[in-house]
Structures are given as structure tokens and as C-alpha cells.
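Figure S4 source data
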Amino acid sequence: MATSNCNLAVAICVTIFVLSTSVWADRDFYPGKKMIYFCRVPSVEYIRKNIREMEKVAFDGLVIPEAHSWSTWSKRRMVIKDLQPLIDNLRATKFRRFTDNFLPINSYFPSKEETADWFDPAWSAVADNAAVMARAAKQSRLKGIMFDTEQYGDYRMWDYDEAKQGRPFKEYRDKVQERGREFIRAINREFPSPVIFVTWSYELPIAYPHPVGVGGQPLYALLIPFLDGMIEAATPGTVLVDGYEYGYGFVSERAFMGGRKMIKDTARNAITSVPQAFDKHVRLGLPVYPDHWASMSMPFVFDRVETNLVTPDLFRTMLANALSVTDRYVWVYSERLRWWDYGAEFGADAPIEYGKANAPKEYVEALRLARKGPAPGNHPDKITWPNAKLELSKENWRFALDSTVGQTSAECVKTGYDDSSWQQVKLGETPSYTGKAWYRFRFSGPVLAGNMRAFLTVPTADEFARVWLNGEYVGEHDLNRYGYSYFSIEVSKSYKPGADNLLVLQMDNRKGASGITNPLKLSEAGYAQIQ
């Protein structure tokens, strides 16, 4: 009888353990937190037709593309019928998982003539345009507005230069704050309780303190009073999420907590002029940009994902730690990682990065696993994005056509090969050719910081290139169409810091222009701990 009771107790314990571990395995450690995708989102027509397939990827919402988002700051007034196709498609889309979607407003200032200055009576068109965008977002059942505050175009509205503006900074600051109030009131007339997701805002005076022109004000100095005006006049239900774009390279919870302290303490106590409104409306959002280095011409490898600067495990950890620290939203920005098969939208001649869905399954899975916590193992606090250490001179390259090298071409890559008979050239001034040609260049390699990885960037190559460093093959690049393109290759294993290096490229030109024209660069990238 005792044995039977013991066995029963063991069985009960095992059952409880299995059930509890199952519940634990399925647990979302960050309930209520949302991951939003912002970048190469397909058209609303594609979204409507493919929403069930799209929602298999573990996002919670999208920033919906809309061409009129680039026209908000124009003197030309928009009308709601311009956005009616967008509204119709979104209202017809049966969203289930993607519950938090946003319509963008971009800070695009094309020119002084086309952009209404802060003191220009025509500025009222900007508020009216914002109201049109807000109405479209509300009628489309979106969560709110994604306000991209990065300055695009030629006229930098967020910067202050007394020599150009002709008025003292205080006068401009007060007027811009007034415009911020007008801006949010126009939005709230159409959308009483929106989420306004700002890519970056109150961290800017600290992140980018560089003075601009006469007057000594930092970059984006006028953005802060504009946002202060917005939160000062916003309805009680309006939420302004500071997306803290400055944190693109953060990995650890400690790094993201530094961003939280920047917004919650420093910005609140030392930057905003309306701290009570700040407390009421401003919330912290955080970014994750898994292929950021790729947008800076660094390589992204799809078939050997563990060689990427951000591996799938590191991507998962970035997401998990951002979810842990954010008030509600984490936004994912990616340029090389395409999450859905929508290449046909861009036509047959579109660049390869617009091609079919090419996010490796490991990154798709990392999105899902992020809600279960960081990947096991030790991780850095942040990523050090590529930093150019050396620009190779355009002078003193050795050049030879493959046809003149003959049967010894296999020897051309060796460090001991005698290239003294080759032509000495300057990049951009080599003879025009069709077919293959060789380039050799010797340089003294700078010492890299810490455990940084080395990358070689070739800014203009026509059209196919193979690359060797110190006699070792490091990779190749095929443009696969006529014309020049840049590319980068990691050269860490063959690079010799603080010593002489030999770089060899074999180019293959098929049509038109030929060769390499611009200086090559050696860069370093890697990981860092917070000191």
C-alpha cells in the first residue's frame, strides 16, 4: 500500500512537472509588448491579398507605406480622396495578429521654396496635411502615426542657424513650439487618441550635440520645442512614443536601460520645457536593426548566418532585451532581411535586395523565440558598427589585362609574385577593357581596436570581382547586370594589422565601362561592453 501511494505521488509530481514545463515553454515573458516592422513593407494591395501569410511572421504590426507621407510638409494641401485607395484596402484587410499598425509622416523638406518656413502663413498647410493623414489613419483603423523625424531633402527645418534664419533662437524656439501645438491639434481633430510613434526625439541634444552655423545650437535643436508643443496641447489619450533610434546597436538589457534612463530621467529633467506634459504623454520605445551594418555597405551572408555581425541568436537577444525594457513598443528596421515574398512588386529589373523573401529561417524563428527571453550564452552590450580605418590610395596600383598575364595568372595572387612589369595606374584612369583584368596593391594595415573584425569595401566595381588578401581568397561579387556597384567582404582571417598587406582583385567586365574607379576602404566592426 505504501509503495502504491509512493508511485502515485511520483506520477503526480511528474505530471505537474511536465505540465508546468510545458506552460513555461509556451510562456510569453513580455505580455502586452509589441514588435512593429518598419522599412520595406509591401503595398497595401499586397497586404490585403496576403495578410494570412504575412501574419505567420511574429510581428504585431506594420508601418504602412504611403507615398503621400512624403508630402506632409509641403505648401500644397492634400485632400482625403488622395488616400482613399489606401483606406479602402486597409479596411478590407482582415488583420488578426497585426493589431498595431501605423501610417508614416516623414520629415521631408525638399527645398526652401517648397517648404513652408515656421513664420510663413502658408505653414497652415502643414497642419492641414497632418490632419488628412490622421483622418486616413483613423478611417483605416490604424493605431496611429509613425512620425519619422530624420530630416530628408535639402532644407533642414529642424536645424537652427541665425545667419540663415535672421531671428534669434528664442524667437524661433517659441514659434516652433506654437507650430507643434497646431500640428497635434490638427491631428487630434481627426484622431482623438492616437499613438504618435517618433523615431527619435528627446535624446538628440545629447546624442548629436554638434553646433550648426551661427548661434551654436545643436543639430535638430528645433525638433525639441516642436515636440514640446505637441505634448503640451495633446488630448489626454494621445501617447507619444520616443523610438530612441540612437539605440540601433544596443544588445544587452543594461544598454537598453541606459536608453531608458536617458529618456525617463535626463530628457524629462533637463531637455523638455514641459515636464508635466512629458510625464503624461511620453513613453519609451526601442529599436532593433539586425542588418544595420549591411546598409553601410557591409556584407550580409544568407547561407552562413553565424558569420553575420548580428547572428540569429544575437538578433533574438536584442529583441528580448528591448522587449524587457520598453514601455510597450519595439520597432524592427531591416533593409537586407525581407520577411515576405513581394519582389514582383518592384519589377524584373529591381535590385536583388528587392527580390523574393530572403530572411533566412533562423531570423524568422528568432522573432518568435524572442518572447521566450534572450538566447543562451554570453552576449555583448552593444555592437560597434563599421568604422573606416583606412582609405586606400587611388595611386600606385599595378594593373594588367588577363590576356597579357597568360598562363601565369594563377600566380598573380601570391605575395611573392613579381608585378614590376605591370602598368602602374591610378584608379579611375585604367585602360578600358572587356574581359578580365588584374589589380594589385600593397598597403600598411592599421591596428584594429580590441577584437574588431576587418572588412574591405569596394565602392565601385564593374561588374564581377574576385578578391584575395595576402594570397588568400576572401570572396567575390557579381553585379549580375551592367554597371557599377559597391560591395564589402570580411577579411579578418587574412588581414595583417600593423604590417604590410597585399590586395589582389580580378575584375571581369562584360559590357560598357570597366574596372574600379573610387578608393577602397578598410573598416573595423565588432562588439563592445559598456565601460
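Figure S5 source data
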Amino acid sequence: MNRSQALFALCLSALVLCGSACSGNDGDGNQAFVVRVSQGAVDTTLRIEVRGNWVVYFEDESPMAPAISPGSLNGDADTMDSVAVAVSITGGSVFPLGVAARAAHIVGDEIYLEVVEADDDFDWNGDGGKDDLVLVHWSSDTAGVANGMGMCKASGACYVDDLDPAVVAPSLAAISHEGLLYYSSNIASGMLASGATSLNMLDPTAPLTPMAVTHTDTGPRRPRIVASDPDGLLILAYDETVEMLQLNAGDTDMLDTAVLALLDGLNPGRGIKNVGLAIPLRMSLVPPAYSPVRARLVDAGNDWLVGFFVSENDEGGMNLNDSTSAPFVGTAWNPTQCTTPDTDATDSVMHFLYFEAWFANSGTNPPRNTGLVGRDPAGIEPDRLAVIEGFVAVVSDEASAECNLNSDVDAGFGTDGVVRLTAAPTDPMADILPPGLATELHALAVGLPGPSEGLASVEDRFVIVASEMMDDNDIDMDSLKTQNLVGWIDPSSTTLTTWTFMHSGDFVGAAWMNDEPEFDRIAIAFQESVIGSSLNSACKSLSFADADTTDELPTFARFGGGSTMLFPGVGLAMSPGNGGILVDVSSAYFRVSEAAQGADINGDGDSTDFVLVRNSLFACDPVLMATTTNPVNGDDLVITDRTLGAAFVGSETGSGLDLNNNLNVGEDVLMYFELP
């Protein structure tokens, strides 16, 4: 085994080929990894939801070329809808819900749908019209029973409440979070008591009884749902134009549309607290999006470190990264190569807070300004940050920083997205002192495929993908500056400045990288071209290996021994720039391209398909699960909450099979399986 093969620890034996259903039955009734197919054609434009024992997908009434038309599935006069279907993962039972909906949420065994009445052609709230956005409930316990407070359908789907029609992208109308459903009710502010909000929650123990969420100030509030952080915080925002109040500290207007607020999702009875700072709302993105808010459990799980961006423009045109003003003047905050101060007030600037101290007394423990900028608010790249215990990192736009941060050959301020990081001290009086030497700062592969945007966190380390070309830096010392290379840093060590790019004596190129790692592993598309070896030709038992060095291979990187980054992987060529790798507790899933592999893997007579392959994290047993699709956004290859089951989209066109037995070949279908 040569050095390159040792770096990419090949764990590949013969690929096990299966038909449309691949079984892991051990003879004792274990149905793990048995792939089942649901009925109908799945609408891939709407998100499939998987939680606990349930999958909800949306069946397309009008597949492209049906041999047998499914007709109207929701009882209206047209066949243009996407109609919700619930599937029991462990039992395999299929429940057509008969409701045209735009989104589904699962809480325990309770299923909720967001429904536009006009789409469903049904007056759900009984007000005599069909022009509302409503929340509808269904449960297998009451299937076929009209048990709701309002209108019901024969499937047992019943009206719960009106949703706030003003909640449009990027806000969420509802979200499943910490075993509860939160949603924005369409209740008039005048009907809310002081301290009450229009944010309601539903507990699966009382699935039709909304409970109002309170807030810590006076007066009524109508918060918008921004995101659910996986570590337990619910991220919210106030729109001053809706509240008709001035809610942020930086200005006196009532025009800011995204003033950050937080709710302890582990104890929602504490109420929503206003952070009082406006986060950027990126209207330049398609679709529009809030800048990210990230939380990491710290202090042995007793607190959150929360990182977020603040909009200078929405804070009254306040310059939050001026090196000549407090809190930065007189400190070593400013990079040595940045000889002129920032002069504009149009940036996104990273802040952080420690939730418990801030919640207890935001006056003595306010949010801290790092002065580190994000992306150009008018540009097309989203803001990006990462949080680990005691540290925060950001991708800084040089033009926004008004400094050529890595001192390369770019004209003017520079055009790179450069990773910056700093300690996040718990002492509210401690200085913010990020590393600033040009040799310590690297330009990232901005726009790297995958949700990481080239910056992620693993355990107590930051991981980046640096662009040699953008950094004007021959990191791997091959006399070229063409690679995108994986590097990492442990900021809790003796220095904040030492990035490591060499792994087991070699360098690793990445063509895709995941965002939040699971089980202390991060998924990376490993590039053969960087090491110059064909790693999917090294397994002699693999009958359809190639010999080129242009492939992107799935690897599930982790740290070993504290200071070594390891890249265990599988020698199969993924869809270029679109691997969509997902790591589970014991397995990894990834999308293989037959064309890149140069083989007919699914045995249908061509080499043009994309197949879903599963491999154990601990053994050499790659298994073909099914022929799948290759969407532009390949992040959700497999959808799972990593408890009982998972689902994905199978392709009849690619496999040439009528997978759902409806006498039509050419649909995308829902496929699902139990986890071990």
C-alpha cells in the first residue's frame, strides 16, 4: 500500500448488488435496510419529512407520462396538486391524507400540514372562503375520524388553526423543534394580552390544543420563526414594521425587519427574549435568507454559545468594525496589514453571546461585537460562521473588511473570502483579539459545493477548504496554485494561528464538504487529482474499477489521536460536486455516478445512472441500495432523523423499472427503510 492509499483508508470489498429492495434481514425479523417503495410519484420540489416512525411525502397527481392517471387525490376537480401521504416506516402502512399541502411537520406520532386553502379547494376554517393559510392535523390513532375543532376530511385530517399569512420566505410558518410543534398563528395583535405572542406550540400529548408562547417584555408580539438550531435554541426575529415598535438598540426607526430573538427550546416556559440587534436579511439571495445564527452547547451542556451577524445598515448606519473606535482602538485587534480603518456602515459583523448570562442580565452580559465581517450584504454569497466551545469563526469578505486580509495579489481591498476566528471570552470586559497576520489567514474555496461553504467544525476544531488560487499560496508545494485543500486548527491549543494542511504525510483536496458533523465525523468528497492516484482501482475484487485520477470519492473524516485528521472512505466515484454524503451512527450513504465510475453498477445496460450506496463506518461492506436521482442541490440524498428510519427518492427512469407497480416507468418514487 502506497502513501496515498494509506491516507485514503480503502475499506472496499466486492460491491453487493441488489434489486429494487435490498434486504438486511438476519432471519430474526430484523428489517434493517430493507428498502420499500411507496405508491405514486413523489413531488421532488417539496421536502420529504422523516421523524420517528413516520415519513410524509407529497404525491404528484400529474406525473409526466402516466399510463394510468392517479386522478384527483384530494377530492377537488383538478389533477394539478401535490397531496400528502403518510407512511409508517416499521409497519409499512400507507395512509393517503387527501390534502394538498406545501409542507409537513411530524411531532411524535402527530402529523401537521401547512395548507393553502385555494390549492386544496377546501374551506378548512369554515369562514365561507378558500383564501387562508391553515394548519391541519392528522394522526393514525384517529385516521378516518373527524375529531378536530373545525372542518375535517374523510382521512381524519382536521383543521387546527389559521397560520400567519404574512409569514413568507425566508420565515417559516411552522417548525418541529425539541419534540414540539411551533407555529405562527394568524391572531390579531389586538387580541393578544401583554406578554403574549402569536407563536403557539403544540405538544403531542395534546395535539389539538395550542399553547401560547410568552415573551419577557411588555405588550403583544408577533415573532417570525427563522430556524431551529440542532443544539436546542429556537431562532426567531421581530419585524418592526409589523410590531410598529422600535426594538433594536442601534437606531430609532421602526423599519428593521429582522431583530433577533431567542427561545430556550429545552424550556420554552422561560419565554422569548429579544436580543435587540438586527440581523441581515439577504434579499440578494434566491430565495431570500436570514444570515445564519449558530449555537453550541458549552459548559458541559449547561449553556449555549451563540454566534450571529449584525447588520450595520439596520443598526442605524453604525460602523461596527472601525479599528479607531471602541472597543477596538488601542488593542491588537486590527490586522497588521490593514493600515486604514474601515469607513463604511454596510457590513454584516459577527457577534456572540453566552445565553444563560445574557438571559439573566443582558445589561451586564450583553452580546459581544467581534468586529469580524461576513460577506457583502448585497452579494450572492451567504454569510457563514462556525461555533465551537470558546471560539467563533467567520468567512470574511475582504471588500467588506476594507483590507486585503491575506496580502495576496488582488487589486484594491481584495476579492477573497478569508477565514477569521477569535476566542469568545465569557468575561464581558475581555478584549477580542483575533489573529491578524496575513500568513495566518487563508482564502477559502467560496462556493464550494455542499452546505459548509468551506468552513465547518468538528469536535473542538475548525475545518476549512482553502483555495490555493484565491489565496495565491502554494500550500501543497507542488509548484502550482490550483487545489482546494482541507486544513484544520485547534484554537484551544497554544496558538490560534497554526493551520494544519498535511495529513499523514500528504495533502487532501475536497470537492464537497458537509456542514454540521454527526458523530464526530464530517463528510468530504476526496479528490484523486490532488494525490495523483486512482483509488477506486485499488480494490482487486471490484470488477468495474477505473484507472483515472479525476474522481471524487466519499470519505468520512474524523480526528484520531488528537492531532491527526483521518480520511476513511470508499473507492467509488461520486456525482461530481454533488455527492450528497450523509453519515449515520453506523453507516454512510452517498451518490455514485456510473459515468464517473465507468461502469454499469445497477445492471440496466447503460452507465449513465446515479445510485445510492451504503457502507458501514466500521467494516468493508458497500451495498447498492437503489437507483436514485441527481438533483442540483444534492445535500438531502437521504432524509433521516437518525432514530428509526430514513427515506430517499428513487428513479424509475434511471433503473428502467416500474418500482411502484403502477404500469408506468418514468417517475420519481419514495423509497424508505428501517435503521438497525
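The longest helix spans residues 355-360. The radius of gyration is 26 Å.
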